[in-house]
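To close the section, here is one more complete example, presented without commentary so you can practise reading it yourself. The ligand is heme C.
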Amino acid sequence: MRLGVTQYVLLLAGGFAQLIAQTPPAKLPKPLADAAAAANAAGYVGSGVCKMCHPDVWQNFFRNPHYKSLASGKEPPDRTGCEGCHGPARRHIEAAGGKTTIPVAFSLATPRKVLDTCLTCHAKDYSRADIRRSPHSQEGIACNSCHSIHKSPVPKFLLAKRQADLCYGCHANVRTQFSMPFKHRVNEGFMNCTDCHNPHGTPAPTWRMGLRPRMVSQALGNEEPCLKCHSDKRGPFAYEHPSVRVDGCEVCHNPHGSTNAKLLRRTSVFTTCLECHNGAGTFGRQADGITLQSPSHNMNSPRYQNCTTCHIRIHGSNSDRLFLR
Ligand code: HEC
Ligand code: HEC
Ligand code: HEC
Ligand code: HEC
Ligand code: HEC
Ligand code: HEC
Ligand code: HEC
Ligand code: HEC
Ligand code: HEC
Ligand code: HEC
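Output:
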């Protein structure tokens, strides 16, 4: 068999790589041997030597927020630079590379291992206190499903994609909701999913009896995030409409988008109201049913069907028990 030049070079290179891989530490190329020898007791060698074989990663790293710890030089070795995430690399250096010789190779890591690795430093952040029991973690969606440490295309938060595209990648049905005639303008870039959600998980909400958290983040301590922007809707009012606080905004509104004006869940205002004000038992302050409209209301008259033309302060009022002003 005759070898072309290319094959010949490849064969040589392959043989050389194999040779390096099998060489005991003493015979390693000097820079590697030096680095391995300089490792501390826990096996940390420092980031400098990584440059030799991972120049692309290394050269982009100064732009990474994680570079700070590397630059300061004051952090302990397990909190510094490349090995802060990938683990002590002495064995990797002694073997001159390989996926299985580095303690944390993310291409091989389970979601659990990814979480554990990132949380060695990030567990102290309050916003991630709930991450282990968040629906994302429970479905095996770990940090690197949403963040890209070395190849993030966006300037902030090392996201793997622009935020809405990132979330739509797995939540396609939500895109449809934000394309409805009435909607919050997320697709237009005025708002983000994270104005209302915390993808890292949230504590149980204080509204809707703590059920169905949906990773909806909390504002002002423990209120619905809606109040960050619609603070007038929650009072405090002298006369509350109990459903606003107890059930939460979503009992009447679709938070993403709706085919109905004002993001209502129902096609009209009065069907929204009659869902509760229908005389059915056990609701209400006295558990004897929510007040029915009084007999003065003629439901056959179109005038009465738009309840909020009279009950204008439907979210609560400071001057009228019936929200008429
Ligand atoms: C002598 C060259 C060499 C040096 C020095 C080196 N590596 Fe590697 N590294 C490799 C090779 C080869 C691979 C295997 C690549 C493959 O199989 O795709 C690798 C793989 C890795 C991987 C696994 C990537 C993955 O998820 O598949 C990580 C992480 C890594 N190196 C980190 C480091 C760090 C951190 C340092 C510095 C402490 C370092 N390397 C130093 C050659 C080197
Ligand atoms: C904050 C944690 C973190 C730090 C610090 C870090 N890496 Fe990584 N590294 C990752 C993650 C996560 C991946 C998986 C791919 C991704 O998410 O971008 C990765 C992937 C890699 C890979 C596989 C090839 C690739 O591009 O996907 C290599 C090689 C690597 N890292 C080397 C390094 C080197 C060298 C340094 C220091 C300059 C370093 N890493 C610092 C988290 C980190
Ligand atoms: C489902 C997607 C997703 C997952 C999984 C995820 N993140 Fe995030 N992360 C985001 C988004 C989106 C932002 C940007 C938040 C914003 O715009 O306010 C962010 C922001 C951050 C920030 C900076 C801002 C802040 O909130 O403090 C850190 C740090 C962070 N994430 C770390 C992590 C770690 C560590 C993990 C795994 C334990 C993780 N993330 C898992 C989507 C995710
Ligand atoms: C060795 C400690 C350490 C580990 C491990 C670590 N981080 Fe970080 N991370 C930091 C530090 C320090 C910062 C910078 C915080 C600052 O600037 O205030 C940071 C910042 C971030 C940010 C915010 C970036 C921004 O633009 O503000 C994100 C996102 C992030 N880390 C994600 C991760 C992910 C995902 C992992 C696991 C792959 C991880 N980190 C592992 C120490 C760590
Ligand atoms: C205006 C606030 C707001 C914004 C912005 C928002 N959400 Fe929501 N989202 C909510 C609320 C509130 C719920 C809970 C609804 C309920 O319990 O009835 C929810 C529920 C969800 C659910 C679970 C319910 C379902 O329909 O399966 C997913 C998934 C979701 N949102 C994803 C997203 C994504 C992705 C984005 C960004 C593209 C986003 N959300 C933006 C407020 C918001
Ligand atoms: C890699 C896929 C993936 C990405 C990316 C992703 N999610 Fe999810 N998300 C899931 C899975 C899987 C679930 C759990 C099953 C379900 O409820 O659909 C979930 C559930 C949710 C829920 C509902 C939680 C509940 O209690 O039912 C919300 C809200 C949510 N994600 C918001 C987001 C937001 C906001 C982003 C972007 C920052 C995002 N997701 C990115 C896969 C993903
Ligand atoms: C980040 C700020 C912000 C948050 C958080 C927010 N909204 Fe909004 N909301 C707006 C803006 C701005 C508009 C005006 C519509 C537009 O042009 O985007 C709006 C419009 C609305 C409307 C329709 C008003 C109309 O006249 O058609 C309703 C209803 C509404 N929001 C309810 C909610 C609910 C419920 C939540 C919580 C799940 C919420 N909003 C969270 C900013 C916010
Ligand atoms: C009992 C049902 C109900 C609940 C609960 C409710 N709303 Fe409304 N909301 C309505 C109705 C009905 C309208 C339409 C009023 C009209 O016809 O103009 C409306 C209108 C709005 C509007 C647009 C008009 C305006 O006044 O600015 C916003 C914004 C809004 N609601 C936000 C909220 C927020 C935020 C919450 C939770 C704190 C909430 N709503 C809870 C029934 C409700
Ligand atoms: C999620 C259930 C719910 C919805 C939807 C709802 N309400 Fe109520 N509403 C209540 C409860 C509970 C009370 C407290 C009355 C009681 O305890 O009997 C109340 C009280 C009232 C009161 C004061 C009556 C009184 O005796 O104190 C008026 C007026 C009222 N609602 C009008 C409306 C209108 C108009 C709508 C539609 C825009 C509406 N409500 C939608 C649950 C609801
Ligand atoms: C034309 C104005 C007007 C419209 C439209 C209207 N209301 Fe009223 N509503 C009133 C007035 C005035 C009162 C107090 C006097 C009375 O009981 O007739 C009242 C009282 C009520 C009460 C309290 C009854 C009680 O016994 O305390 C409820 C509940 C109520 N309305 C619900 C509704 C609902 C639901 C709608 C829409 C289907 C609606 N209203 C439409 C004017 C209106």
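Once you have examined the tokens, check your reading against these statements. The longest strand covers residues 182-183. The chain has 16 helices and four strands.
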